[in-house]
Amino acid sequence: MSDNKNIENLALFRSIKIPQSEIDALLKIEESVGYKLDFSDRTDIFFVPSFSVENHRISAISLNWLRGAKPLPECITVLKHLKILRMLNNHKLKSIPNFIFEISSLQKLVLQNLKLPDLSQSIGNLKNLVQLDVSYNCLESVPDSIGRLTLLKQLLLGNNQLISLPESIGNLDNLVFMGLKNNKLISLPNSILNMKSLKNINIRGNMFDNLCDLKNRLKCRGIDT
After folding, report:
1. In a domain, 163, yes or no
2. Contact 17, 43 (CB under 8 A)
């Protein structure tokens, strides 16, 4: 396996039995690293592989259902062309290391069902994000810095414990869809009504004081619910 010099997609699912040593060797091959690496659903990986500048061609990494995985290595920040990072259902990952928010090349970040209690203010550093999915966590609030992600087109905040949203969320002029279902929201910031590109917002399963009035106000702005 370590002789393959032209890998573009590497998927190492649980059913594929590859020793950890082989995975490490593969990632050390100069100019051979896959554009997309998927380590999903592997219980035999007990730490996330290390990366180096030799792995610069990696553009997407999926780390899902790694039930025995330790926290991500800081060396992931050397991947200057990493555009997509997915981490789903890794319940042993109690928080997201701050160095993740230093990967300025990220365009899609999925942190779904990790039981996260909060989202770092540093999320605002990822100014190239087009999609952010932090649904199915335990978030009670969203940091003000979310308003700095002005390239966002899709923001998924559903199935958390959100009580309110910051006014800065109205700065997301390119946002097309916002998912807010199944939270504890009783109102929305007025700034949402001024969002230029917003076409659809899912507000089902919340605790709004006057849901009919809210829907009418959104509809008047051309925003579907």
Report:
1. yes
2. no
Distance between CA 95 and CA 141 in Å, rounded? 15
Region of 41 (left: φ > 0; alpha: ψ -120 to 50; beta: rest) is: left
pTM across the whole model:
0.81
123/149 Cα distance (integer angstroms): 8
Domain-located, residue 33: yes
Give the count of domains, the chain.
1
Two structure tokens written together for 74: 């800081």
Tokens of 152: 């966002």
Cβ atoms < 10 Å from Cβ of 137: 22
pLDDT in tens, 192-209: 998 999 999 999 999 998
What average pLDDT does the chain have?
Answer: 79
Cβ atoms of 145 and 121 closer than 8 Å: yes
CATH number at residue 85: 3.80.10.10
Separation between Cα atoms, residue 219 and residue 150, nearest integer Å: 23
